[in-house]
């Protein structure tokens, strides 16, 4: 039985393409849609129907293959860091790992097994960056390296990230992962810099820019995931949840995200059933990290400074020959910005980063 009504595939595709801001598509939209707020003004969200996921891992393979050119190629030997307690994080010799997040694995399948309402369940949950609406990782990055784009994609610019891991410290799910021996710190301050670059799902921003869907969505044989304007995805998530008597995760977590999950089993039960820890995020209720007044103030005061710093670093990266895609983050749309002290020396004592 079909569990919820969707627009025709043709209309969905037109809305998806229009939401990417591709020119001329407004002409294809029905008159009523043209008069309404353009989907191009809206950020994109993804919706996972967890009742359909069989945990086959085709999405993980597609992500690894598609994004392999973006993976780090570290230079050895790694500079000795000061203070010497700053640890090396080298995933380059463990690239085959797929059961957690790493700089070489931006998506993995988390599985939950148990009993709910007297029935046994097995639910598989594809996990990666949630692409938060007001992302603390971007708002508090001291260097402007992490940023949110107008279409809702949250990216870390590997050309200017210094690997200080502030993004990971403030992320409710500790998503970004560090690789040592790569990035601008090697040229600027190899012994004192952030010890690498942070990596995570970039929502296949380059495929989106070409009007393609993210690789993980395209590869799934069971059509578990879809992408579209957020209001449409939220409405679909609610309809789906209603029809299956299910539950939603991601709509309000961390103040709202652009990754929605719908499950027939409550997320607190799934959270208790999944393995969590380094590179394995939980499914707990995540409070809005940016609701903290101090963080808000820091962000509001220092946004312009971080923007300038990012520009200088980008120029430095270009001059030192490291800029692979200069300008690709031109539409970054930071809602706020930082002022917390630059975190350049690696994990801090309260940093669950030591979970790496
Ligand atoms: S989302 Fe699709 S491709 Fe990925 S594990 Fe689930 S069923 Fe397989
Ligand atoms: S999930 Fe974490 S890394 Fe991803 S956008 Fe949100 S705060 Fe940033
Ligand atoms: S959106 Fe792209 S980068 Fe993110 S998990 Fe899917 S395939 Fe990987």
Please describe what this structure looks like.
The protein has 356 residues and is an alpha+beta fold. The protein has 2 domains: 1-41, no CATH class; 42-354, Alpha-Beta Plaits, CATH 3.30.70.20. The protein is 28% helix and 14% strand. The chain has helices at 9-19, 31-35, 58-67, 136-139, 166-170, 185-188, 205-209, 215-219, 230-244, 267-273, 293-319; strands at residues 44-49, 108-116, 119-127, 146-148, 154-156, 177-179, 197-199, 225-229, 247-249, 259-263. The protein has a 4-stranded mixed beta sheet with strand order 8-1-10-9. Strand 4 (146-148) and strand 5 form a beta hairpin. The longest helix is centred in the C-terminal third of the chain and has 27 residues, at 293-319.
Write a brief structural summary.
By secondary structure, this protein is of the alpha+beta class. It has helices spanning 9-19, 31-35, 58-67, 136-139, 166-170, 185-188, 205-209, 215-219, 230-244, 267-273, 293-319; strands spanning 44-49, 108-116, 119-127, 146-148, 154-156, 177-179, 197-199, 225-229, 247-249, 259-263.
């Amino acid at each position: 039985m079909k569990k919820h009504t969707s627009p025709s595939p043709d209309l969905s595709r037109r809305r998806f393409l229009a939401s990417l801001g591709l020119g001329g598509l407004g002409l294809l939209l029905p008159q009523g849609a043209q008069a309404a707020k353009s989907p191009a003004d809206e950020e994109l969200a993804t919706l996972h129907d967890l009742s359909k996921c069989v945990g086959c891992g085709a999405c993980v393979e597609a992500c690894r293959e598609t994004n392999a050119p973006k993976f780090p190629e570290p230079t050895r030997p790694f500079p000795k860091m000061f203070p010497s307690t700053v640890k090396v994080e080298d995933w380059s010799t463990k690239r085959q790992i797929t059961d957690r997040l790493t700089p070489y694995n931006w998506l993995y399948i988390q599985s939950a097994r148990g009993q709910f309402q007297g029935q046994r369940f097995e639910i598989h949950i594809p996990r990666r960056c949630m692409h938060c609406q007001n992302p603390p990782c971007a708002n508090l990055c001291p260097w402007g390296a992490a940023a949110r784009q107008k279409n809702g994609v949250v990216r870390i610019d590997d050309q200017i990230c210094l690997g200080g891991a502030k993004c990971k410290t403030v992320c409710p799910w500790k998503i970004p992962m560090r690789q040592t021996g790569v990035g601008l710190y090697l040229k600027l301050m190899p012994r004192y810099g952030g010890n690498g670059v942070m990596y995570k799902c970039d929502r296949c921003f380059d495929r989106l820019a070409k009007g393609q869907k993210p690789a993980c969505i395209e590869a799934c044989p069971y059509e578990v995931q879809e992408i579209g304007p957020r209001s449409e995805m939220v409405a679909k998530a609610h309809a789906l949840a209603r029809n299956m008597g299910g539950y939603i995760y991601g709509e309000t977590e961390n103040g709202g995200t652009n990754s929605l999950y719908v499950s027939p089993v409550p997320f607190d039960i799934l959270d208790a059933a999944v393995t969590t820890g380094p590179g394995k995020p939980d499914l707990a209720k995540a409070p809005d990290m940016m609701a903290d007044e101090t963080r808000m103030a820091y962000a509001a005061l220092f946004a312009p400074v971080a923007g300038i710093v990012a520009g200088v670093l980008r120029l430095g990266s270009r001059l030192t020959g490291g800029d692979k895609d200069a300008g690709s983050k031109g539409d970054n749309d930071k809602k706020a910005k930082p002022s917390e002290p630059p975190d350049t020396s690696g994990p801090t004592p309260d940093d669950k980063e030591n979970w790496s």
